[in-house]
Amino acid sequence: MKAADRSYRRAVVGALVFTAAIVTWFGLARAGVVTGGRFPTPDDVWRSAQQIVSEPGYAGGTLWQHVLQSVRLVLMGFAVAIGTGVPLGLLMGSSRRADALIGPVFSMLRPIPPLAWIPLAILWLGLGDGAKIFLIWVSAFTPALINTYAGVRNVEPTLIEAARVHGARGARLVREVMVPGALPMIFTGLRLSLQTAWMTLVAAELVGAFTGLGKVLATASLDINPGMILFAMAWVGLLGYLSTKVLERVESKVLPWLAH
Questions:
Q1: DSSP letter string over 94-152?
Q2: Which CATH fold would you assign to the domain 38-259?
Q3: How many CA atoms does the CB half-sphere of 65 hold within 13 Å?
Q4: How many Å apart are CA 45 and CA 111, to the nearest integer?
Q5: Which residues are bridge partners to 61 per DSSP?
């Protein structure tokens, strides 16, 4: 079965499951099982959508202002994460000396959850966007580094030896042999990093945010507004899904042989 056929079947199955879930939700609301006390009804979500889309919006802004702020923070944190995690993974994977020096420090810092960095983020960077980007970077950095490191270490040793025989050394060896060989694992790390960045967004936007989907969720929880909570959660999920699909499209262009 071709990759396109498999992707089509997955998309169809996913659409059917999603449709079934929505129909079930509407049916439970119509039957009175879902009353809106703890879980929102479709009417609750619809009213919340109307409120946040129109001026003056909700939690300090309209939906599009919140979406743009959240997307901006995620992309900036993700860019910093791959800009540091991928090169460091390449360095540690290609140099045993660098691995011996950096590996123990990384192993000690890795178990610390991103939320534990919030006090230091505020102390170092204040309540601006810098602290939020830092928290997203902390969470997204690890998958990028680990997968890049694993990708370099999994490159066939015979390829490396053959390249050395033909005069490839140092940066040239990394650029022409190790990076191409590690690219599938690097892209796996990028996908995980991007998904982790969206997962950390809500916590990051608790740090003095004026707008953003995380601010909407925090405000809606204080207002006991389950319709708005579900609506904001849906947007976080949708944006995470769309950004991951964009990254997968880039991967298919860079590594076309993996799509077959």
A1: H-HHHHHHHHHHHHHHTTS-GGGGHHHHHHHHTTSHHHHHHHHHHHHHHHHHHHHHHHH
A2: MetI-like fold (1.10.3720)
A3: 16
A4: 37
A5: 58
What is the amino acid identity at position 13? V
- Of the candidates 75, 66, 65, the residue with the CA atom closest to the CA atom of residue 197: 75
> Which residue ranges make up each domain of the chain?
1-34, 38-259
DSSP secondary-structure letter at 212? S
| Spatial distance between the Cα atoms of 134 and 85, rounded to a whole number of angstroms | 13
What is the dihedral sign for C-alpha 19, 21, 27, 30? Answer: negative
Element (H, E) at 161: helix 157-165
pLDDT tens digit sequence for 170-196:
667 777 777 888 899 999 999 999 999
- Taking alpha carbons only, the member of 76, 74, 106, 111 closest to residue 88 is 106
Average pLDDT score, the chain: 86
For 58, the 3-state DSSP assignment is strand
Which is nearest to 48 in space by CA: 246, 260, 219?
A: 219
> How far, in Å, CA of 17 to CA of 88, rounded?
40
Task: For residues 5 and 3, give the distance between their C-alpha atoms in angstroms, rounded to a whole number.
Answer: 5
Residue tagged 């601010």 (tokens)? 215
* pTM (predicted TM-score): 0.88
Q: What is the pLDDT of residue 109?
A: 86
Q: Taking a C-beta distance cutoff of 8 angstroms, is the pair 169, 106 a contact?
A: no
3-state helix, strand, coil in the chain (%, to 5): 80, 0, 20
Count Cβ neighbours within 10 Å for each residue of 189-224 and write b for 16 or more, e otherwise: bbbbbbbbbbebbbbbbbbebebbbbbbbbbbeeee
